[in-house]
Each structure stands twice: as structure tokens, then as C-alpha cells.
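Give me the fold.
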Amino acid sequence: MIRATTATRAVLALALGASAALFVARPAQADLPGADPQLTRAPYLTDVTTTSVQVSWATTTQSRGVVRYGPLGDCASQTATSTALGSPITVGTQRQYSNTVALTGLSASSGYCYRVYTGGAGPVDLLGTLATPSFTTLDPADSAAPFTFAVLGDTGETTNSGVNDGSVNVHQSQVHALVGAAGARFVMQTGDITHPGTSQTQYGDLFQTGPDVSSWFGPSYWAQPGMTLPLFATVGNHSMTSTFTSVWKEPATTAASGGVFDLVSYPSYLGSSPISYPTTYYAFTTGGVRFYVLDTAWGNSNTGSATGGSCGSHCKIYQLDALAHWQPGSAEYQWLAADLAAHPTGPKFAFFHFPLHSDSASEPSDSFLSGVENLLVQSGVDLVFNGHSHIYQRNTAGPGGLVSYVTGGGGADVSSVGTSGCAATDAYALGWSYSRNRGSACGAAPVPTDDAQVYHFLKVLVDGTSVTVTPTNSLGQTFDVRTYTVTG
């Protein structure tokens, strides 16, 4: 439980004329120079634990994927080979093959390096002349060593400053590069990894470009940071196809916590169509902190006769999500309550898509999650990180000390805050209107003068009972830095 909240230091001004050195965007490129031409999707990491990690990539040819890996300084001492041939996928106009290999038997808190190869006779090093990537496994649950992670939400859009012509989304490119350079051990994503939907084409590859093509795995985006930073995925309302669960694999973490990461069949609610949606909720503990990744999502077009209650049409999907996931007898609610009860002490953080508190008019607060919020408060959860609203917002601690953030500025078009008023609990919020070409703010935040100041990620440092959250915009400027004391 958070006992105190204080600003840690004077932060950089948001004005473009601030004295801080601004981050310079990487140049656009149509591929990943140095990689073998057979590599279409650079290797990326998921499901990291103290003893394992998943490595995935895609190629133009089908074979059994091979990873040569080892501790730092001995990167080829071990070999892991996939149990099956690469799985066919269609990306844009091309047939490609997706490979995933689990590296197991690793040691906790340890650095490893790896390279990916084609299988069979004459294996090809798919990284070519690229440097050998490395990663670090999670710390044990009882470790007291400081560690850093990043939080990123609402990403994967080719629109750049309101224009979707298929060129590079400079703001997202800058945010991804900054995440890669932040010194984080891993990344927590708060949902809607790609916009406007979830398809293999939207995720894309190293070569194909165009509107809504390669908005995540393009060479200017996650291709490079993803090789070294494991990502824990959260489902969002733009992620409601089987593509999500096929791209983001979390089998070890899900199994260890008794969670779910699969397509689940739902009945009709309020006249909605019976449907199967990707459903993902799981938990893990590292460095003394319990991390909860929850499913608060529903498809935009499957709302039946839902009204959204007093919130109106924007909240229809909130209403359906609550009926599917957050009734006392729902599987996810029961799982969460049981896991919280099994971990009564120690700091706890929760990550989910729909926001508890948001001053965005188009993606407002989700009042249908009030029961979940009460459960989190009663169970001693310290911090909540949400997405969905394409803004930055920090909310003051409510009863029980629960502080929540909205971090939806990772790459999708950002939106305004406070057009319908700013809530008293809104301590600091930033937004931008493309139709009005101006910024907006709530709480103590200055009004941004450029949309680049609204695109952002969060860097979180855990050092014992001290937790520092450092928001960083796409210019590389930090703002609204806060340190909390958590006691569990």
C-alpha cells in the first residue's frame, strides 16, 4: 500500500524551448541493414521468467527455427530448435513463416546473448552482420536488488501527427527508441498494441510499408528494441482476433500463475453476438513485486443493446467487458481475487486496458470497473497502469492509497483532455487536438505546445520500498516525476 506521494525533483519543462537536449529521431529505412534477406520479422522476446524466455521471428522460407545462445561472452554454447516447422502467416501480399523457440534452463538475474538461424542443412545466420542481441532474466521473487521496467500503451499506428500516408510515425519511432535505451529489464504494455486493428499485416515486417502496414515490427519501430527487451502483452479492444495470441506468447508465465492466455468463447450479453475473443490474464513476481496483467477489453462492434449507462455510447464496450469478465462469478474475477488473497503482502502493480479514471471525452473513465477498483484497493495494490485513452494522466491516490496512471501515448494518435472538464482527482494530464491543432492539460500540467510532448512512455524504478515513475515524452524530456513509498 502506498503511504506517501511526493515529487522527487524539479522536472524538465515541456516547452519546445526547454534546455534539455531533445531526442533526434532515427532516419526512416525500408529494411534492417545487415540482416539476412530471409529475415522478415526481427527476433522479439516474450514470456521472460527467472529461467526461460520465448524468442520469435519470421522468415521468407519455412524450416525449424534454431537459436544459438549462452551467457554473455559465450553466446553459442547452447542450441535450441523449434519442435515444428515455421507457421505460415500472410503479411500484406507475402506468405511468411513465423518461428518461436523457448530457451529454458537459464539462471535468474543473468544476462544471455543469442542469434537466430534457419534449420536444416546449411543453416543461415539470420542476423547477418547485426550485433548479437542480449537480454537479462527476471530477478527471483525474493530479490532486493533494484530493477527498472517500462510501461507503454496504445501503439502500432502509421498515422504521423494526424496524417496516415504510410510514412514513418516519427513520434512512435522516437518513443520505441527511447524505451530501448532506458535500461529497462522488461516492458509492460497496456493494450492496443496495433491500430486500427490486429492483423499480421498491421504488425508487419521489415520491408512492406503503407497505411496500416508494418506499424509495429517495421524497422523504425519495435524491430530493434524488441530483440533485447521482453514484452508482457495486454489485450485491448483493438486486439480482438486470434492474431494477438499467436504473436504474443506467454505460456510459462500464464501456467505458473494459473491464468489464461487463449481464445475463449463468450455467450451473448445484452443481445451481443456469441463470440470467441483472445482472453489474457496472468501474474508474476519479480524483485518482491507482484505484477498483474488483466483483461478489460471487448470488441467495438459487438455491443448488442448495451447503452453504456450514464457514460453513453463510448462506454458500451465497458459495459460488455464488465458482464463478461467482472461479475463476482466470472472466471477472471475469481482468479484475480484468489491470487490477491494468496499474495497478501508485498507491493502489487496492476496493468489493464480500460482506464479507471480518464479525462478524455472519447475514452472516458470506466465506471463499470468500480468493483475491480475496490478489490484492488482492499487487496493492497499500490499502482495501476491503464491505456485506451490516448493521453497521459496521473490520478491522485484515492481511498486506500491506490494511484492510477493512464499511459496511452505510445504511438496511436493522441487526443484531448478536459474538454468536458477535469476531475478533481486528475493531478496531471496532457492531451492534443489535431482538429484544433493545440494542446490541452489538467491538474498541474502545463499545456503542451507540440503533439510530440504528449507521446510518451513510463520508466519505473523499483528500489526496495521506493518506486519512482518517470514519464518521458517523445522528445526525450522527462516530466511529472513521482516517487512513492510502498509497504505492501
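The radius of gyration is 21 Å.
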